[in-house]
């Protein structure tokens, strides 16, 4: 099945997903995998309306795709997990949803929307195991990783465990979990329990196809929509080129988008202005 895979979103659904939809139509894809990190970005932690608008757009877009018989598989990222567990980070949203009835709690609102989205930890795409950050040596997928998450106490406890294992990115544990492992860790400590992997999480200038010859192991990093902050307007600049990944019968190829269009950062700036 032709599948398009999309790197980290970080509060850019309204800009990125129309590009994804265009690629889906051009290539006749019937499946889309979203790699996670729908939430959080630089200097957005005091803008609850932005979070709400982005999540509502994302959920509505997924329903639109599914109504056209296109399957959408949303994966969980490290920036999404704290809203499920309630263990918010310093980069998480800091404001309750004061525009909603009863000044609703951050975690309560976002966790419900993530569950409505239908997030899961990983997905097996033929010979490729797809997850937000990847499985390194000593880790392998568990049965619950391949199903939709719930707000059940057991699921939340399991998510909390992987959310705390930041590895080389900091936190507990010597190695990063499936939502925290750095791409360099996947290369240094390739898993012996899984086959080829497709990940995001570690920003790249373009899609990276990396082979580990000893185990005939392919690693692919597709985090190409990330930005970094700068001092001057529009206060962010590009890291990646906005490529999408196309999977077709075992073959992988990069798809270009209009991500580097001159109006993109201006539009993003306008979307992120608070009333």
UniProtKB/TrEMBL annotation:
CDD domains: MPP_superfamily
Cited Pfam families: Metallophos
Superkingdom per UniProt: Bacteria
GO molecular function, a single term: hydrolase activity
Protein name according to UniProt: Calcineurin-like phosphoesterase domain-containing protein
The Calcineurin-like phosphoesterase domain, residue ranges: 2-161
InterPro entries, sorted: Calcineurin-like_PHP, Metallo-depent_PP-like
């Amino acid at each position: 099945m032709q599948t398009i895979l999309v790197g980290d979103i970080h509060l850019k659904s309204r800009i990125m997903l129309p590009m994804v939809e265009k690629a889906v139509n051009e290539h006749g894809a019937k499946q889309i995998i979203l790699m996670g990190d729908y939430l959080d970005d630089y200097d957005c932690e005091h803008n609850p309306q932005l979070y709400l608008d982005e999540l509502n757009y994302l959920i509505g877009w997924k329903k639109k795709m599914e109504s056209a018989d296109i399957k959408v598989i949303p994966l969980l990222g490290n920036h999404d997990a704290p809203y499920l567990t309630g263990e918010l980070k310093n980069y998480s949203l800091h404001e309750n949803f004061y525009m909603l009835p009863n000044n609703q709690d951050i975690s309560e609102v976002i966790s419900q929307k993530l569950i409505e989205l239908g997030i899961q930890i990983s997905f097996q795409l033929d010979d490729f195991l797809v997850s937000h950050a990847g499985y390194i040596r000593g880790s392998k997928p568990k049965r619950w990783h391949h199903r939709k998450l719930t707000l059940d106490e057991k699921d939340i406890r399991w998510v909390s465990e992987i959310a705390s294992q930041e590895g080389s990115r900091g936190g507990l544990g010597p190695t990063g979990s499936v939502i925290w492992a750095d791409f360099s860790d996947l290369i240094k400590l390739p898993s012996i329990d899984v086959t080829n992997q497709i990940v995001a999480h570690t920003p790249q200038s373009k899609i990276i196809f990396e082979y580990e010859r000893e185990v005939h192991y392919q690693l692919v990093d597709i985090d190409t929509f990330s930005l970094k902050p700068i001092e001057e307007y529009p206060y962010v600049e590009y890291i990646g080129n906005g490529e999408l990944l196309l999977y077709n019968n075992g073959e992988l190829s990069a798809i270009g988008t209009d991500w580097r269009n001159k109006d993109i950062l201006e539009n993003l700036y306008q979307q992120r202005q608070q009333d």
